[in-house]
């Protein structure tokens, strides 16, 4: 008796939990709510490709920059320091400095594993294959984190950013309605925000306009577009410092009341910035953002404090977006928009309307069948179905799950699964009643016999849902999520909940003279 009473308490608790946490989603009141997916709410969907080869290049470029800076500090003479996708190569001019160089390379590894090859005075350094693969994986995770951070600062509610495939990222932005919002979101997401300080190659820059990229590369330099002056400008290929040392960025106004982006460097960046500017008074240093030169002023004196400005005829919105991108951190690899789709809000509303009609229609048909065929036992089964639906909505709201159109299909499917469980239970009870057993024993044996089959089928379906969610993407995940929650809810309501109701009604059931009224059974043997 106590066990069955406990089951009734569990059922009532499930009902209260389901109703309580479903109300905010159903009536748009305060509280945890289900997030509507892009297909139901409308918005922007983008598939991004991450160019992880560039992350590897940037890693080697940073290594080359650090190697050049620290070698000068330790008076180690190096020549022709070059970086590429294959690693960093250079020449050691003084063989007596080999031990100091080896110690420096160990110091610069920074928890990474390098393969170092020596051929006389020539060195080549690159990451091990395992480290390269780890770098590519971490690059994807870093890009996902930066995109989420940028979208949060941009003010977009409930963005969905997930990895899809080996080097692809799916970004869903519900609520994007205008072309301007779409453009700003796309620019903010796809911008690398890779800030660098680079020295102008004063010796060869006069020939920059007629120089090719290959010719610049042979000089140990790089040709970049000059946003401020137009044309091309020749810079030393190894940067002085990069955006990894940036700590803050914000919009300020210059003397002409034009918006510019002010940035601040950390202590290490400020020291490098100050040392370089102090040693190169009268020369030019370029501020480079995403491989475009925004300014290349002449250094008049040593620049202390570790701060600077980026100007470029920005609008307030453009300056604000750039500051957000810089604060969020530079992408360690550039990204490319592979696919872009706009889903209108009207399409989302139509999808919701159609899905709700299908759900209500199917629910009414199922309830009608259950009541007509199983009488009051069918009514009890329908009560379990209602609680089952409330539980699905409540659990999704509690965990902030996203409801998609395939997810709605999963809910409709779980109605069928829950009905199937109740049909098995009612048929087992009717079988025992037809054998002439009493109602109490029929209910007890009916649930024991039915539970095995229900658990077997539901556990199998649950495993399938877990696997679909773990290895599926997008729409498949939405379907698997609601199906899995629905299966667990149906076990609670069908096996535990309805059994508790029957136990509460047992005194009345044992006195009834009409098994047809309660179970739809027309005959009973004595």
UniProtKB/TrEMBL annotation:
Protein translocase subunit SecDF P1 domain boundaries: 142-202
Family note:
Belongs to the SecD/SecF family. SecD subfamily.
Gene designation per UniProt: secD
Give the subcellular location: Cell membrane
Instruction: Tell me the organism.
Output: Helicobacter pylori
State how it assembles: Forms a complex with SecF. Part of the essential Sec protein translocation apparatus which comprises SecA, SecYEG and auxiliary proteins SecDF. Other proteins may also be involved.
**Mind listing the UniProt keywords for this protein, alphabetically?**
Cell inner membrane, Cell membrane, Membrane, Protein transport, Translocation, Transmembrane, Transmembrane helix, Transport
Lineage top rank: taxon: Bacteria
**Domain SecDF P1 head subdomain residues, every copy:** 228-333
Listed GO biological process terms: intracellular protein transmembrane transport; protein targeting; protein transport by the Sec complex
Q: What is the lineage of its organism?
A: Bacteria, Pseudomonadati, Campylobacterota, Epsilonproteobacteria, Campylobacterales
Outline the extent of the Protein export membrane protein SecD/SecF C-terminal domain.
Answer: 334-501
Q: What is its main location?
A: membrane
- Which GO cellular component terms are attached? plasma membrane
Q: What is this protein called?
A: Protein translocase subunit SecD
Q: Which GO terms describe its molecular function?
A: protein-transporting ATPase activity
Q: State which residue ranges cross the membrane.
A: 356-374, 379-399, 405-425, 453-472, 478-502
